[in-house]
Specification:
This protein is mostly helical. It has 13 helices and two strands; from the N terminus they run H-E-E-H-H-H-H-H-H-H-H-H-H-H-H. The chain has a two-stranded antiparallel ribbon with strand order 1-2. Helix 2 packs antiparallel against helix 10, helix 4 runs antiparallel to helix 5 and helix 7 packs antiparallel against helix 12. It is globular and about 60 Å long.
């Protein structure tokens, strides 16, 4: 208990520092405590919103990644492995294409299309996963393999839709579609709804953390200890999928947060889900907030897609973990 308090307290302190730095600093410099002009106040408000968005999205992705790695019993699983991001990207790109042909310009159209696409992908995934997890002829391991294959096929199908849209889209539409697909935290919609989803998912999955610890040791062990494995896997899949859908609806596809953060934390603090899940939430949000700060400042005044920064950071770290045999 004492170790958990110390670890989570340390992660909370890191989170507070990261969010403060991301809020106070940007491409135009840092806001000082004595600044009082209107422009400085406006910049501060914009940065608060942007930092809050980055934290919510990063926390959702890291939590979803940790849950996916438990469900599939694969440390290389990430939130996008089941095709939800592909559905979101397909929905967003289709709406942008239709709006372009119709001559309609609405800033929230991308988010609406992404939400519809992600929702469709989640419903389709659940319809197929439910039958697999409830089948008495399939073991939990085989059900997990079928779920993974289902996700791969969904991702391939949605990828084909996105490719078709990019082929048909006008030049002025391509930049918006590609930029969103690489991660965009500017002008994000539905962020407060995503924050509510994050709060509910964090509470529920932390409550189930002891059962998830048993599930991580194997389905047989969990069943012997009285854990309803099939129901727990469906609940975990539900929250992982909804968290992923909320994250990609708000900010597009941002890679490596859901893969590297829980995997790296597992190496540092162990596989106790009672600590790992809240730590993933805190560090996922912190890392994405700092990555967004780099995206805003590294080549200012040009703003980079935050997904580029997370990939530039995540790839070397993951390769280092592989070279050390930590995966």
């Amino acid at each position: 208990m004492r170790r958990a308090i110390i670890l989570l307290g340390s992660f909370l302190l890191i989170t507070i520092i990261a969010l403060a730095v991301s809020t106070l600093c940007g491409s135009t410099g840092c806001v000082s405590g004595t600044s009082s002009d209107v422009l400085t106040g406006l910049l501060f408000e914009l940065r608060v919103t942007r930092t809050f968005t980055a934290f919510v999205v990063g926390a959702l992705l890291a939590l979803a990644g940790a849950l996916m790695q438990i469900i599939l019993r694969n440390p290389l699983a990430d939130p996008y492995i089941l095709g939800i991001s592909g559905g979101s990207a397909a929905g967003a790109s289709l709406v942008l294409l239709a709006a372009g042909y119709a001559g309609i310009t609405y800033e929230g159209s991308t988010a609406i299309g992404a939400a519809l696409g992600a929702g469709f992908a989640v419903l389709l995934l659940f319809g197929l996963a439910y039958r697999a997890f409830q089948s008495v002829s399939l073991s939990p391991v085989l059900a997990g393999h079928r779920l993974l294959l289902t996700g791969v096929m969904l991702a391939s199908g949605f990828g084909a839709v996105v490719t078709l849209v990019l082929t048909l889209a006008a030049d002025k539409q391509l930049r918006g579609i590609v930029f969103w697909m690489m991660g965009d935290l500017e002008g994000s919609y539905f962020v407060y709804e995503a924050a509510v989803i994050l709060l509910i998912a964090a509470i529920v999955m932390t409550w189930y953390a002891p059962a998830l610890n048993l599930l991580a040791r194997g389905e047989g062990v969990a069943q012997l200890m009285g854990v309803p494995v099939r129901r727990l896997r469906m609940i975990t899949l539900c929250f992982a999928s909804v968290a992923t859908a909320a994250a990609v609806t708000v900010a597009g596809t941002i890679g490596f947060i859901g893969l590297v953060i829980p995997h790296g934390l597992r190496f540092v603090i162990g596989n106790d889900q009672r600590i790992l899940l809240p730590a993933s939430i805190l560090m996922g949000g912190s890392v994405l907030a700092l990555a967004d700060l780099l995206a805003r400042t590294i080549v200012a005044p040009v703003q980079l897609p935050v997904g580029v920064i997370t990939a530039m950071i995540g790839v070397p770290i993951f390769l280092w973990l592989l070279s050390k045999g930590k995966t």
